[in-house]
Amino acid sequence: MVGVICRPNTQEKLEILSADAQYDLACACSANKEEHRRRSGDGRWIYPVTLPNGGKSTLFKTLISNVCSNDCKYCPLREQMDIRRCSLRPAETAKVFLDYYNQRKVYGLFLSSGVLGSADATMDRLNGVARLLRKKYGFRGYIHLKIIPGASDAAIEEAVSLASTVSLNIETPGAKNLEKLSKKKKYIQDIIEPIKLISKLTARGSRYAKTKQTTQFIVGAAGESDAEIVKYMHGLYERLKMHRVYFSAYQKGLGDESIAGEQAKEEPTDILMREHRLYQVDFLLRKYGFKESDIIFENNGCLSLGIDPKEAWALRHSEAFPVNVNRASRFSLLRVPGLGPVTVKQILERRKQRFLRRIEDVGKVGVRLKKARQYLAF
Ligand code: SF4
To answer: Which end of the chain is more exposed for a tag (fewer CB within 10 A), N or C?
Structure first.
């Protein structure tokens, strides 16, 4: 049952709604360790983010409403929960955000919401804030809008036209897994078709090509394997040109007991490591030229928690090593555990000037180069 709507002031509503926004990570929040779950000490609705150029900044991140008519078992905001519910109006949201923006406390806005009434009514609130900011106040900065599952094509197109980034959370790989988590959400109709529409609207050369699309998997709630997640992630990048995929480890105790009892068996530390391994795979796919078939899974379809996925590939492919530092291609160097794109670029530049004779010629020997040394030949 939906709880009583309270009448707190804007500040009190932000306290509630920004705390509830913490579970959504699909907003360029840093993927480093626990950073993406941290909020700044300055205000509970200000979250650290990594900018497209790699720099750090802060984002004003809140829900516009934590009222929700959906039943997602993993979510503490689901309809059945007896929690304090409230909503922000578009005008007050735009105003309070601009106050922070004008004081240079935040770089942009991330807005999400529970389903308040219907998907389109909720979209109208989210779009309403962006409409005010863009059209009334002339704001040209960063706006991230959440797309509500089941929203109409028209509402989605308006969001895409107003936002810098939009995201609709895929949540889990495949309809069978979603059925374990929600009786109301329809995987193809409410999630996959809208993601495809956004992909089409934002395709290269199209009217909204500058708008980016991201999504998020909730990890461990449906008993899904990492192999299933990686298969869907690869498809999202390859076929739908998704800008970024994020992962949020299911946190025991927040969801329905049937998840905690039957499906999410992992220990808290294991599930966080699993999330971390998926981020490492994401990097391998996006930045290192790895394909889905290069990812090594254990017999149960999960990534090793003990060895990172790049090292797991190297251990399985001893024929690819050692890699000759002075002659190997960028592609081969990127396969070496411990070498990232920055170090590989450094190697390619340095070897144009001189012959590299030992690991010290590559760079300062820290943990990563110590690891790389065993896979390299000079
Ligand atoms: S739609 Fe599902 S995940 Fe989103 S707020 Fe509602 S219950 Fe939570």
So the answer is: N
CA–CA separation, 276 and 272 (whole Å): 6
Listed residue (189, 212, 184) closest to 78, CA to CA:
184
3-state secondary structure of 192: helix
Q: Where are the domains of the chain?
A: 10-304, 317-377
pTM: 0.89
Mean pLDDT of the chain: 89
Q: Cα of 77 to ligand 1 centre, how many Å?
A: 6
- 190: Cβ–Cβ under 8 A, 6 or more apart, which residues? 119, 149, 150
User: Which uninterrupted H or E stretch holds 283?
Assistant: helix 268-287
CATH superfamily, domain at 317-377: Photosystem II 12 kDa extrinsic protein (1.10.150.320)
46-79 pLDDT, tens digit per residue, is 777 766 566 777 889 999 999 999 999 988 899 9
Q: Which fold has domain 10-304?
A: TIM Barrel (3.20.20)
Dist. CA 31 → ligand 1 center (Å): 22
Q: Give yes or no for residue 115 CB within 6 A of ligand 1.
A: yes
CB 263 within 8 A of CB 221: yes
User: Tell me, what DSSP letter sits at residue 249?
Assistant: E
Our answer on whether the CB atom of 68 is closer than 6 Å to any ligand 1 atom is yes
What is the whole-number distance in angstroms between the Cα of residue 25 and the centre of ligand 1?
14
Query: Is the CB–ligand 1 distance for residue 309 below 6 Å?
Result: no
Query: Do the Cβ atoms of 336 and 328 come closer than 8 Å?
Result: no
> Distance between CA atoms of 181 and 276, rounded to whole angstroms?
23
Instruction: Please compute Rg for the chain using Cα positions.
Output: 22
| Cα(374) to centroid(ligand 1), Å | 48
Q: Locate 235 and state its tokens.
A: 């498809």
